[in-house]
UniProtKB/TrEMBL annotation:
Assigned keywords, A-Z: 4Fe-4S, Cytoplasm, Disulfide bond, Iron, Iron-sulfur, Metal-binding, Methyltransferase, rRNA processing, S-adenosyl-L-methionine, Transferase, tRNA processing
Name of this protein: Dual-specificity RNA methyltransferase RlmN
Cofactor(s) required for function per UniProt: [4Fe-4S] cluster
Database matches in HAMAP family: RNA_methyltr_RlmN
Subcellular location: Cytoplasm
Any further remark recorded for this protein: Reaction proceeds by a ping-pong mechanism involving intermediate methylation of a conserved cysteine residue.
Domain Radical SAM core: 102-347
InterPro entries in UniProt: Aldolase_TIM (IPR013785), Methyltransferase_A (IPR040072), RlmN_N (IPR048641), RNA_MTrfase_RlmN (IPR027492), rRNA_lsu_MTrfase_RlmN/Cfr (IPR004383), rSAM (IPR007197), rSAM_sf (IPR058240)
Binding site for S-adenosyl-L-methionine: 169-170, 201, 223-225, 309
Gene3D superfamilies linked: 1.10.150.530, Aldolase class I (3.20.20.70)
Length: 382
């Protein structure tokens, strides 16, 4: 008799799990709900511990299914409460996940791919090349591991309140797995997070932004980094295909599908002498104001300024504190809600742009970058 591979239940959202119970196990669909509560509310992976599940069903599950999160290579706390995990995805690839507590909220930064195929010039994930998309289990597994570690109690005592798909990879290039995992994050039988507390960050894949608006109800962040095509194409090559005007139109359509009053966050990494001049700040302010005017309410656009975190071999430098403050002030004076992202987890290399994964590169980009710079690479996120 040939062994049928076991289904990892973390790969299935509520709908998929109900179908698995009905079609594969010959059970009532609602039985799936019991199992979801054990997995996501109690962090139980052993069917034997699911005390309210009948013996016969437990035996079927043991034969046909498993609950297998990624393996934890190590985890590290930071003095400021930030926590980092290195998670093995298979025998040769690993990614990092970071939890960042802040006043009244706790945000987990989650990856969607091993490496990234896009080539944003200021991003160290890009220098590591690309291996593959993460499965749904590997994406939701990052949340599961952090939630278990934090002693998170869904619907009761939550330490993990927000998820940002902002780690390694372009989430919209792994659309189905990301949407399925985000549905588990928001499902009451999953992690029960409010829709607006789950944020997807994209480099600007216009058609997929439209699809996301039709198929999921989550917050959107856009890695903008420049207010015009000449500069943005230099920093984010994807801009050649989807220029700023088209991207902003897609954002208008996206917000149009969501509840009135919600906003899109535009991420802007500040690099010395590249995109931090007062003239660029004024141009960005105009673009953001035009966007809010199109939506017909203030603060439809929010700007998140991220001081660049240098990595070995990069040609960019972090903007000076004076330039950062001046850039923010110009935007605020123009009526654009603008925050500067504080650096967290410095002592454990968990700040934005300092995450290290292990990518078996299939694109040769890692080798080319190392050859040019004769240094090891690190990863940086959106
Ligand atoms: S910024 Fe995001 S999309 Fe661009 S290369 Fe890095 S991970 Fe990929």
């Amino acid at each position: 008799m040939t062994d049928v591979p076991k289904t990892n239940l973390l790969d299935l959202d509520r709908d998929g799990l109900e179908r698995f119970f009905a079609e594969e196990l010959g059970e009532k669909r609602f039985r799936a709900h019991q199992i979801m509560k054990w997995i996501y509310h109690q962090h139980v992976t052993d069917f034997g511990q699911m005390t309210d599940v009948g013996k016969a069903l437990r035996a079927k599950l043991e034969a046909r299914a498993e609950i297998r999160p990624p393996s934890v290579h190590f985890d590290k706390p930071s003095a400021d409460g930030t926590h980092k995990w290195l998670l093995g995805m298979d025998q040769s690839n690993a990614i990092e996940t970071v939890f960042i507590p802040d006043k009244g909220r706790g945000t987990l930064c989650v990856s969607s791919q091993v490496g990234c195929g896009l080539n944003c010039q200021f991003c160290s994930t890009a220098t590591q090349g690309f291996n593959r998309n993460l499965s749904t289990a590997e994406i939701i597994g990052q949340v599961w591991i952090a939630s278990k570690h934090l002693g998170n109690k869904t619907h009761q005592q939550r330490k993990l309140t927000n998820v940002v798909m902002m780690g390694m990879g372009e989430p919209l290039l792994n659309f189905d797995n990301v949407v399925r995992a985000m549905s588990l994050m928001r499902d009451d039988l999953g992690f029960g997070l409010a829709n607006k507390r789950v944020t997807l960050s994209t480099a600007g894949l216009v058609p997929m932004i439209d699809r996301l608006g039709d198929e999921a109800d989550v917050s959107l962040a856009v890695s903008l980094h420049a207010p015009n095509d000449a500069l943005r194409t230099e920093l984010v090559p994807l801009n050649k295909k989807y220029p700023v005007a088209e991207l902003m139109e897609a954002c208008v359509r996206y917000l149009g599908k969501r509840k009135k009053g919600e906003s899109i966050t535009f991420e802007y990494t500040l690099m010395k002498g590249v995109n931090d001049s007062p003239a660029t700040a004024r141009e960005l302010a105009r673009l953001m104001r035009q966007f809010s005017n199109r939506m017909q309410y203030a603060d439809a656009a929010k700007v998140n300024l991220i001081p660049f975190n240098p990595f070995p071999g990069t040609r960019f430098e972090r903007s000076g504190e004076t330039e950062i403050r001046a850039f923010q002030k110009l935007l605020l004076d123009a009526g654009v809600l603008t925050m500067v992202r504080r650096t967290r987890g410095d002592d454990i290399d968990a700040a934005c742009g300092q995450l290290k994964g292990q990518v078996m590169d299939k694109t040769r980009r890692q080798a080319t970058f190392k050859l040019k710079n004769t240094i090891p690479s690190t990863t940086q996120t959106h």
